[in-house]
Amino acid sequence: MSRRAHQKTPQNLFFGLIAGFFLLAAIGAYVLQKGSNPYRTTEPLKPADYFENANSLRGNVYQVEGVILNALAQNPEKGRLFSISVTSESKKWPMPILIPAKLRQINLQKNQSYRAKCKVDDTGILVAEEIQKS
């Protein structure tokens, strides 16, 4: 009775499996990075439209991402008013954003980047409904 020779696993299969694993890891990282924006279903605010006529945007909800410039005012009942720098079309736009008293536990710091879901109130000021560090 003759014996069959034991065949080794081809090296191409081994390297193919490793390449496939890294490809799946890269796709997973890309998907997780895209999913990091909790407000992705909310339309981003166009600063040019806001400065052209903020009253036409009243009542609408937008996504705003920018860097905190300064604290402008504080009222224990209404909240804190900040200026935020929003970059759009390679131009930086300073915009007012009111952080209501119900979000007072959030510690906003100057020169930090934040992403917020904001509603344009009746006076044309952006009022944060939700905000987080980006």
Describe this structure in words.
The structure is a single chain. The protein has helices at 11-34, 47-52; strands spanning 61-75, 79-88, 91-100, 113-120, 126-133. The mean pLDDT is 87. The chain has a five-stranded mixed beta barrel with strand order 1-2-3-5-4. The chain has two domains: 8-37; 47-133, Beta Barrel (OB fold (Dihydrolipoamide Acetyltransferase, E2P)). The protein is of the alpha+beta class and 134 residues long. The protein starts with 10 loop residues before the first helix and ends with a strand. A hairpin with a 2-residue loop joins β2 (79-88) and β3 (91-100). The longest helix is centred in the N-terminal third of the chain and has 24 residues, at 11-34. The chain contains two helices and five strands, in the order ααβββββ.
Helix count equals 2
Q: What order do the SSEs take from the amino end to the carboxyl end, as H and E?
A: HHEEEEE
CATH-derived architecture of the largest domain: Beta Barrel
Strand content: 35-45%
Which structural category fits the helices and strands? alpha+beta
CATH level 4 superfamily of the largest domain: Nucleic acid-binding proteins
Shape: elongated
CATH class category label of the largest domain: Mainly Beta
The helix fraction, in percent, is 10-25%
Contiguous low-pLDDT stretches (5 residues minimum) are none
The total domain count is 2
- How many beta-strand segments? 5
Give the C-alpha Rg.
25 Å
The pLDDT mean sits at 87
Query: Strands of the biggest beta sheet: in what spatial order?
Result: 1-2-3-5-4
